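General statements about sequence and structure are easier to judge against a single worked case. No coordinates are needed to read the tokens, only the vocabulary itself. The sequence in question and its structure tokens are set out directly beneath this paragraph.
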Amino acid sequence: MFTQLPEEKKDLIKPLYKKHQPNWSALSCYFEGKMPGKAYVDDANAPTKAICRLEMSWIYVTDNADLPWIDEVLGELVKTTWMQVIWVPERKGTCPLKGIAKPFPRLEYIERKKEQKKPCKVDIYQFPYTKEFYATVPEGYKEWHVQNYGSIEEFFKKAWGFYAVDNGKVCAESEGAFMSGGYAEMGIYTFEEYRNRGFAYALCLRTIQELEKMSIKPIWACDKKNIESDRLAQRLGYVNPLEYEFVYLEPHN
């Protein structure tokens, strides 16, 4: 059995996440009140296991939750919503809702040594955008800002990161997302016509260095099959990735 945990009681389940999980900073944002989400537990007054679903679909399972209970909770949630379950290495060889699950191998880098090369020369500016430069961002990408922040105005207020400009136009954007608990998750996007020119490397390096100045560890996470992202991480000095899985669950009755 399970029940939804009242929002004011979410601190009861924080100790149940004893081990650092991949994509940890997003979960930390939930506990700090920066990220909307819901939690489901076995007992609302004295929970021993829990599942957190963040508003943007990521699912975090507490360390000691057993697979039958996980299947019970996710089996009910998947009737109305899609989910991405962070499946930790300790659970390798098992899978929730095995009949409908789609697991994808992932890599997460936290440890970083010296970057491999010097960055190319490109103009880099910190968020928020100026109106003039933001006008050069492709409209399709602005929709991504709205999707993730709710509106352009909220993106301007809340996003932390940098953008690169080539010949008066924005060519790439890097973000330190889910900043919480001493970590932030790296994000990078280079617009198609500017790729393979070193802009992503230069921009990410600047973002990483600024985060490190603030004593924040920049996390790099990507699908294992995303070879370009993995190579970029290594050029930036990232080593010893943790392998885990995203388990995708589409709505299913």
Remarks:
- The longest strand covers residues 169-180.
